[in-house]
Design the sequence.
């Protein structure tokens, strides 16, 4: 006898993936959203309103010679940061609700694997983010004259990748939150350092070396770089695709980690 | 016939407290087994161990020949927690259809499960707009929809009106007659009489593991409430 057949299947983090079960969860999360009209309205309209405020803020400030106006630079970056922040918050609260309502424990006794559940969340909020991004980008370029050289579909794509990253990090963070108070405080912990170091406030090449090194390993940095590429090049660049790949890869990694930290058995 | 659930020397600690202390028992298939005992006696912990979501210190729990909680069991074991675990922001029908989908069942089975718990008229209502008893039934429907071989129900009849309670117990027996194994916890003694078999739990140990008739005979009284009281006193005298 060369191999011993395992007598019991280990409780693995991923289990067997099922697109059917993932889709069932996606549909369920979207149905929950559909019943919550105010959340939908805020999700779809708020980023556009905030972007409008930024447009007004810099409306009378002259652009530095030979450079894009401040609003073009900041507004474009915000198109990636809004979905990231909103989806991070929404997901960490949604997951905490699953935990406190007992539905999470129940789901863990069904044939659905943990990764199915988390991918279901990622897909649902990714779809919501796509609608949000289409609205925000449309409003930004028509109403606020945001100047984007590249194709707008790419801006939407990057916004969706950012949203999925926000969902994945939100799911991961919620595994460590035991209460609503902790969950909301994970937002500044996860989001603000990435925002400070992404290159919007201070260009990355002007940062201290060690800060730049930290910035190098934070996924939002690549999301912002991708948006800057689309902002100045009329067509997709190689750098942009690498950046999008890094953001998507970081999101998948966070989802896998979230699945691994989601304990089926609790005490 | 092999037992549906076999618990051997189960020890569970929660925090610094020992909740189950070397508990062993078997649950026969195709019957309704009642798990009775006061609040804090370890009923919920034992049920969580059977469905495989409880961290156990030592001992084994085997369900349908597999270790509790193993992937093969997840389509065969249904669990209804004491607090209704359904989505408050979905309708009853949407909840049932979601859990149906997770068990590979369709809308027809979901609607049948909702009707089976007497919520057909409320199926379009959001769960958050239902009464406590209705929420509990919605939660039960979400377990019935998967047609599990083993159904673990934690206090499923709390707060229900008597007519509905009788109907649910009839349904439990119908499921058992069709071959399902039910483990139902309760702290209401008149429900104990409806069980095929009883497990009386107190302070993490079994006081009785017998049929209602055997419990009555051993205690020498026809009233189950009184019988349990006598068993508890007899045990305390032995301990003292």
Sequence:
């Amino acid at each position: 006898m060369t191999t011993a057949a395992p007598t019991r299947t280990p409780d693995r983090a991923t289990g067997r993936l099922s697109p059917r079960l993932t889709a069932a969860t996606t549909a369920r999360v979207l149905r929950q959203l559909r019943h919550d009209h105010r959340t939908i309205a805020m999700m779809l309209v708020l980023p556009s309103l905030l972007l409008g405020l930024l447009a007004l803020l810099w409306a009378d400030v002259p652009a530095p010679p030979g450079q894009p106006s401040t609003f073009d630079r900041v507004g474009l970056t915000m198109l990636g940061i809004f979905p990231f922040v909103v989806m991070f918050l929404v997901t960490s609260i949604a997951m905490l609700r699953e935990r406190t309502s007992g539905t999470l424990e129940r789901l863990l006794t069904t044939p659905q694997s943990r990764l199915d559940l988390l991918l279901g969340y990622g897909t649902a909020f990714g779809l919501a983010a796509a609608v949000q991004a289409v609205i925000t980008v449309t409003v930004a370029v028509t109403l606020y004259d945001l100047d984007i050289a590249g194709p707008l579909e790419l801006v939407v794509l990057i916004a969706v990748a950012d949203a999925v990253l926000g969902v994945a990090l939100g799911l991961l963070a919620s595994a460590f939150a035991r209460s609503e108070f902790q969950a909301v405080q994970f937002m500044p912990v996860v989001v603000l350092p990435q925002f400070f170091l992404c290159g919007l406030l201070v260009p990355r090449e002007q940062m201290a070396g060690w800060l730049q090194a930290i910035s190098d390993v934070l996924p939002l940095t690549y999301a912002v770089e991708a948006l800057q590429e689309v902002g100045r090049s009329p067509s997709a660049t190689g750098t942009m695709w690498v950046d999008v790949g890094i953001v998507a890869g970081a999101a998948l990694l966070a989802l896998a980690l979230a699945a691994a930290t989601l304990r089926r058995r609790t005490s | 016939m092999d037992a549906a659930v076999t618990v051997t020397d189960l020890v569970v600690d929660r925090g610094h407290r020992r909740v189950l202390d070397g508990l062993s028992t078997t649950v026969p298939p195709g019957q309704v087994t009642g798990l009775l005992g006061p609040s804090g006696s370890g009923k919920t912990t034992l049920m969580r161990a059977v469905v495989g979501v409880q961290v156990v210190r030592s001992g084994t729990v085997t369900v349908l020949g597999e270790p509790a909680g193993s992937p093969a069991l997840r389509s065969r074991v249904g669990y209804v927690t004491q607090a209704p675990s359904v989505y408050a922001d979905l309708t009853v029908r949407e909840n049932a259809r979601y859990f149906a989908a997770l068990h590979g069942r369709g809308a027809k089975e979901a609607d049948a499960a909702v009707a089976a718990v007497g919520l057909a008229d409320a199926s379009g209502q959001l769960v958050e707009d239902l009464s406590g008893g209705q929420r509990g039934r919605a939660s039960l429907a979400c377990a019935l929809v998967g047609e599990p071989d083993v159904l673990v129900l934690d206090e499923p009849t709390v707060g229900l009106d008597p007519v509905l309670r009788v109907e649910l117990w009839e349904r439990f027996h119908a499921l058992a007659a069709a071959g399902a194994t039910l483990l139902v916890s309760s702290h209401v003694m008149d429900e104990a009489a409806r069980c095929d078999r009883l497990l009386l739990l107190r302070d993490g140990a079994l006081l009785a593991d017998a049929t209602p008739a055997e419990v009555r005979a051993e205690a020498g009284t026809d009233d189950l409430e009184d019988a349990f009281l006598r068993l508890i006193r007899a045990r305390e005298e032995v301990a003292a």
